[in-house]
Amino acid sequence: MTGSIIFDPLIPWSLVAAVAVIATIGVILAAVRGLNGWALRALAAMVILGALTGPSYQQEDRAPLTDIVMLLEDESASQALSDRPEQTKSAADRLAAQIAARPNTEVRRIMVPDGEGDAGTQLMTKLSSALAEEPRARIAGILAFSDGQVHDADLPVDLPAPMHLLLTGKSTDWDRRLSIRNAPAFAIIGEPVTLTLRIEDMGAAPESTGLAPLEISVDGDTPQRFEVPLGQDIELPVTLPHGGRNVIQFTVPVAPGELTDRNNTALIQMNGVRDRLRVLLVSGEPHPGGRTWRNLLKSDSSVDLVHFTILRPPEKQDGVPVSELSLIAFPTRELFLEKIDDFDLIIFDRYKRRGILPALYLDNVANYIRQGGAVLVAAGADFAGADSIYRSPLGTVLPASPTARVLDEPYLPAITDLGKRHPVTTELPGNGDWGRWLRQIDIAQARGNVVMSGVNERPLLILDRVDQGRVALLASDHAWLWNRGYEGGGPQLELLRRLAHWMMKEPELEEESLTAEATGQTMRIKRRTLEDTVPPLTITDPSGNETELSLTETSPGVFEGIFEGPEIGLYRLANGDQNAVIGLGPAAPREFEETIATGDVMAPVLEDLRGGVVRIEEGLPRLRNIRVGRPAAGRGWIGLTPRDAFETRDVRQTGLLPGWLVLLLSAALITAAWLREGRR
């Protein structure tokens, strides 16, 4: 029970002051004029002024409230290193017991896990949420058990009481870290891209030679080993070997005594893209589709086109002197012998043997295919004749032979059952509602994959692999009708684009492929195949544990599955003869960028209310009571601020100057003053 005098004026304080001034002036005038009742008049004025201020005696029934001490226990990934979990639990339990034994004190233990994604240790965010749920007037202190590597230390939090950091770890801890900078998401195939790499020792590192081993592997292949200097930025040129995703892993072997190996590996995933597609278009007899081929290729800014066409055949003898011709000799030897490997794709459009390209040149084209090149043959009526390029050294690599029949009749190109599963022809725009073609070359002995058919289901488009290269045979020269919009046209441009990308071995157009896309720790796996079923997928995690996953067919030739990775790192996928690798999680986890325990990060936060940093390995600090604004930490001790908070249960007020008393006193004093002055 406590009591106090409070004032509740009947009129504003400004008017009370004005009345007091007037009364004072009146008393002073009375005293100056020698009136004997001036003192009684002053007492009467004071009674009236006191009544105007509304004085009352207030009694409160108060119940004391306990002080609250918050204990934040860091359970982030970096806190799991070495014996830090045991340090944290032991110290938190002992201090919590000491605080709970203090009179009128409660303990709030708050666990701080890893932040979402790669946010790191969000200790201040967790503290802000906890403070919002407690009355600030009862917070007597905040104790954080952590390694000090807090990634939201700059978050503005208004602390109601001193905060102290109980630092885990040991002063002898050291760690070796590998970091990669300037890693782009895309790079041009065949052109080097520079990465900045750095290996450095942190903490109480032992003496070394100044060199560290570094292993580099691409897509999980056998790593190459190098010796690189410590503590220096290293400019490392990297050339991507293929298109699509390239997973490059950099690893520093674990050194004896270092704190962790979780920051000894960095995964870089870069997509390889082609700068420009170099195409050689070889045209034979002029026809309406020749210009269509040229226009389609020239319309793509990513294509460098070299067009070889025969404008004046050798058999043309009209007596015109060669010196008067405006044509120049085409550099056939340079193109077909010396620089043929510079081309990504060669297209033969209605070309036949006319003595212009010797057999040696065509044999070189066949070797170009076997060594990884790509050739597309758009066959016209000449393909069925005696001068067909099939009857040249190029015929050994073509996927079918002509029967000498030319079918001149309308037909609708159709996707075969196999073509519905092949990425080149699956789900082509228009869904088969296309215009008809008017000519097809009859072919036989087809090998490879027949993805489109024509007259009476005869092979129309055949895709084949020859050693390391690829060949496509289109048994018609009427694809240009689609581009002209004949009977509604068709997807000629899309079909040509897919053909070119399949020949360039782009991963998204591979008919047999295994790919995965990562979102956080979840990977979506896609298996594309021409088969009806696929075996279970085998997933090997970074620790070497294997997991089998059944895939579900989501569309013709496409099987998919979802897998949640238990840890960050490099995962290996295997399904039949297909293999892939993918990295889950960040390339360099934020929790392991800095692993040495330190109080420097939290120092600005603690200084606001003069808190302190204490290493747990040096012993637990003593607890002291301090006043607000005083130093809250010293040698071997930390301070808590008692709040003396209370809850008011009942309030009673009693007026000190009731109306009847004011009237009685003021009337008596005024009457006494009047009588005294009248007697004189």
Question: What features would you describe in this structure?
Answer:
The model has no long low-confidence stretch (mean pLDDT 86). 20% of the residues lie in helices and 34% in strands. The chain has eleven helices and 37 strands. Helix 2 (38-53) packs antiparallel against helix 11. The strands form nine sheets. The chain has an eight-stranded mixed beta sheet. The chain has 680 residues and is α/β, with parallel strands linked by helices. Strand 3 (67-74), helix 3 and strand 4 form a beta-alpha-beta unit. The two termini are 53 Å apart. It folds into five domains: 2-63 and 648-679, no CATH class; 66-172 and 597-644, Rossmann fold; 174-272, Immunoglobulin-like, CATH 2.60.40.10; 277-317 and 332-503, Rossmann fold (3-Layer(aba) Sandwich), CATH 3.40.50.880; 511-584, Macroglobulin (MG2) domain (Immunoglobulin-like).
Question: Could you outline the blueprint of secondary structure elements for this entry?
Answer:
Layout: E1 2-7, H1 13-32, H2 38-53, E2 55-64, E3 67-74, H3 84-101, E4 105-112, H4 123-132, E5 139-146, E6 163-167, E7 174-181, E8 186-188, E9 193-203, E10 211-218, E11 224-229, E12 233-238, E13 244-251, E14 265-273, E15 277-283, H5 288-298, E16 303-309, H6 332-338, E17 345-349, H7 359-370, E18 374-378, E19 401-407, E20 414-415, E21 440-444, E22 449-453, E23 459-466, E24 469-474, H8 480-483, H9 492-503, E25 513-519, E26 522-528, E27 537-540, E28 546-549, E29 552-555, E30 558-564, E31 569-575, E32 578-584, H10 603-607, E33 613-615, E34 622-625, E35 633-634, E36 637-640, E37 646-655, H11 659-679
